[in-house]
Amino acid sequence: MFRRSAKQNAEAAACPLSNHWLLATTVSLTLLGASLGYLWGANAVMTQADERAAELTHQWYPVLGAFFSRYTLLPHALELLPRIRAIPDDANPQAANPLLEDLADRFDLDALYVIAPSGTTVASSDERFIGQNYSFRPYFKNALDGRITTYVALGVTSGAPGYYVAGPIRKQDRVAGVLVIKVRSSTIRKELNQIERRETDPADWALSDEHGVIFAASRQEWLHKSRYPLSELALAQLEGERRYEGIRPSVMPAPYRTRPDTDDHPLLMRPSQHVGVATTPIPGTDWRLTFYTSTDASASLVLAYAALGAIIALAITLTGVVLVLREANRTQMLRTAVRDPLTDLFTRLYMKEAIPPLVAMHDRHPDQGFTMVMLDIDHFKRVNDRYGHLTGDRVLAHIGRIVREQIRAGDIPVRYGGEELTVFLPGEGLEEAQECAERIRQTLEKTEIRAGQSMLSVTISAGVAAHRPGESLPTLIGRADRALYAAKQSGRNRVCIEDSADI
Prior knowledge:
Layout: H1 6-72, H2 74-79, H3 82-86, H4 97-106, E1 109-115, E2 121-124, H5 138-144, E3 149-154, E4 161-171, E5 174-183, H6 185-198, E6 203-208, E7 214-217, E8 225-226, H7 232-241, E9 250-251, E10 275-281, E11 288-294, H8 299-338, H9 348-364, E12 370-377, H10 380-387, H11 389-406, E13 412-417, E14 420-426, H12 430-445, E15 449-451, E16 454-456, E17 460-466, H13 473-489, E18 495-497
Parallel strand pairs: 8-9, 17-18
Antiparallel strand pairs: 1-2, 1-5, 3-4, 4-5, 6-7, 6-11, 10-11, 12-14, 12-17, 13-14, 15-16
């Protein structure tokens, strides 16, 4: 009974499976391209935000450095005035209050005062400072050691933000007192407002002290927050200095946090949450200027990168598919030229290319043998006429399978034309070729093929011929064909050897 082989079943199913595979591959690679494009765009957008923040810090830190340097130089300049030097040792130091008040107005200061070595204020442009002891302030201790120091804190007297510059008042070889400048917060705010007026792109800024605590910012809610988590030691130090009295600095929201000594962003986040951060020290101070730039307006750019990635991936995938299909088509065309698709035997075209070299080799080595079997299906026209051409095709496919199974690995089976088949046997003589033909004939004789609701039996006739040295291929085929004709004339379903009687 004729049944479809596993190979035929696989070939029948290959096309839809291949289509599904190509579709799945195309979709997967397109999504992968979109994902890579998104990451590419996200990285570009976040890098752009970081570069914009860095650009702003490089642009503005010299401006703020020049602004604060006017005040960091002032204590030393004022110390040179004899009347200032005399205040710490004066029996009535408050007599210098009018002078301090005049100097404060002239330099647009919030306050100008002198502290004795004990830490007590002895003279001031603002009388509220007189008698107050500031020995706990680091700026006092540093100035008493001979250093000019910048400092920011909430005033213990006024409760308002204070920006302080302190320097020593020297007399001969000793520090007689400390001169403190308190800069007006409105003056600093006015300077910082230039940033908001000049920058058209949205950007936030913050000024922070040496601990990273913000004391001025474009957002009011950032005041007294730290740019990074503070250690318990740092918090204890701030509390001991009464720097932000009554306030325990909390850390900034996650996207705005930075490490203490770097501009790197420590968190991995989506582009929509990323904030470009860049920070730099302000020359002449212990403070830092930090800029924050948003990526909110760049969402369309990220989507454009994702779309571009998808398009590139799709183009590459389709190009690959075209190349694969072209190669598959070329392979299929080559296979069709070499293999008969119905019987899976070699084609006559292949025979014309492959057999002549074997004939030439036998001419050089006649002792090795070279034979052929010519096969023809008996009454094949009746099969087509009675059962139809589909059944005829089944018969051909069935016989092709039997031929392939009954020959050696080195033999060459060919569909010569229509219902005629040939087998070339390199290195074999007439006896071996006859045995091969008999195996094919007997196997076919014992099998049946389904033809609709009935079973069909077919037979085959064969002619065998051996190549003679110097003989051409057409001559060899002609002698095998005459042997086949003899088999047909002798009653069919038999094998005849060239120029011999019935076998």
